[in-house]
Amino acid sequence: MLDWLQTNLLELASNITDANKRVFVVYLASSCAIAICVYALNHNTRQKKGLYQYLFNKTIWLHPSALADYQLMFINKFIKVLLISPFLFAAAPLAIEIYLFINQTFALSSRPVVGSQSALWVFTLVLFLLDDFSRFLLHWLMHKIPLLWRFHQVHHSAEVLTPLTIYRSHPIENLLYAIRMTLTQALALGICMCLYGPFLTMLDILGANVFVFVFNIFGANLRHSHVWWSWGKLEHILISPAQHQLHHAKQKQYYDCNFGTALAIWDKLFASLIVTSKKRPFKLTFGIQSKQAKPHNLLNLYLAPFMFNLAKFTATLTNNKKSIHLENSKQNNT
Fold it and tell me: Where, by residue number, does the polypeptide cross the bilayer (predicted)?
C-alpha cells in the first residue's frame, strides 16, 4: 500500500519535472515570463503590487472552480494507474503489428536508402503531425457526439482558467486520450520502421519531441489562464493562448471553435477556426451555458456524465418501445 502511494506521489511530482507534461517547470517559467511582458505592454510597470495581483489573483486561483481543478488533478493521478497505464505500454507491440501488416500488404522488399539525419527528422515530424491531428480529431468528436460531450463537459465547466485546468477532465476522457496516444505512436512507429528500419530515434529536447517542446515553451500554459495573448496572422497556422480561451468561452458566438492543440490548419480544414485581436473581447466569460447544480462538486463531476448518459439511454429505449407498440397497434387495427 505504501509503495503504491509512493509511486503515485512520484507520478504527481513528475508533472513539473517531465518535459512531456504541460506544467513542466520550464514551460511554467516561460509562460510566467511572457505573462509579465504582456502585463508590461498593457499596464503601468511601476506598480509591482499590480503585477503580483495580475499574476496571482486570489479570485482566480482560489475560485471554487480552480479548487476543483486541483482536486481532480490529484485524484485522477491515482485513477490513471488503474485505468490508463496499461494502454501506455501497448504502443511498441502494436507498432510491430502495423509494421508487419504494411510490409506484408505492400510486399516491401527493401527500404529506401536514406541518411540517419533524414530518419530522425521524418520520424519526429510524422509523430508530431499524427499526434496533433489525432488530438484535434478526438477533441472535435467530443464536442459533436452528445455521449462524449457529457464527459468532456467536465473540462468546459471551468469558470476560471489556470494552468492546472488542463487536469480538469473526466477519467473516461483521459482513457480516450490514452488510447489515442497509443494508436498514434504505434502508427508513427510502424510507418517509419518500414521506411527506416527498427532503430528509430526522435529528435528531442529533454526527452520531449522538439516541436512539442518549442510550442510549449512559447506560452502554452497561458492557454488556460486569464492572460490574453493574441498572435495576429500567425493564428492561421498555430493556435494561440487567446484562441484557446475563445474555445472555453461561454458566449454562443464562440461555440465549437479552435479545437486544435498546436496547429491551426486542422481547424481551417474543418471550418472551425476563429482568429483573435489584440484586445480581449468585452465580458468574455468561461464555462457552459446549461445550469448545473454544484458544478464544482467532485462527486457531481465524476458521476453526472454517467447519470446523464444513462438517463438519455433509458429515455431512448422507452421511446423506441412506445413507437414499436404504437406501430403494432396500428397494424392490428388494420
Answer: 24-41, 81-102, 177-199
Q: What is the pTM of this model?
A: 0.88
Domain count within the chain: 1
Q: For cell 509511486, what's the residue?
A: 7
- 281 torsion bin: left (phi>0), alpha (psi -120 to 50), beta (else): beta
8 Å CB contact between 80 and 11: yes
Is 251 among the domain residues? Answer: yes
b/e map of 82-91 (b: 16 or more CB within 10 Å)?
A: eebeebeeeb
Question: Own/partner pairs for 169-176, CB < 8 Å, 24+ apart?
Answer: 169/72, 169/76, 170/301, 170/302, 170/305, 171/76, 171/79, 171/80, 171/83, 171/84, 171/302, 172/305, 173/142, 174/76, 174/79, 174/80, 174/83, 174/84, 175/83, 175/84, 175/87, 176/138, 176/142, 176/148
Give, for all 334 residues of the chain, the pLDDT tens digit: 556 556 656 667 778 899 999 999 999 999 999 999 999 988 765 566 688 999 999 999 999 999 999 999 999 988 887 777 676 666 678 777 877 777 777 665 555 555 577 888 999 999 999 999 999 999 999 999 999 999 999 999 999 999 999 999 999 999 999 999 989 988 998 888 888 877 788 999 999 999 999 999 999 999 999 999 999 999 999 999 999 999 999 999 999 999 999 999 999 999 999 999 999 998 899 999 877 767 899 999 999 999 999 988 888 777 665 555 555 555 555 5
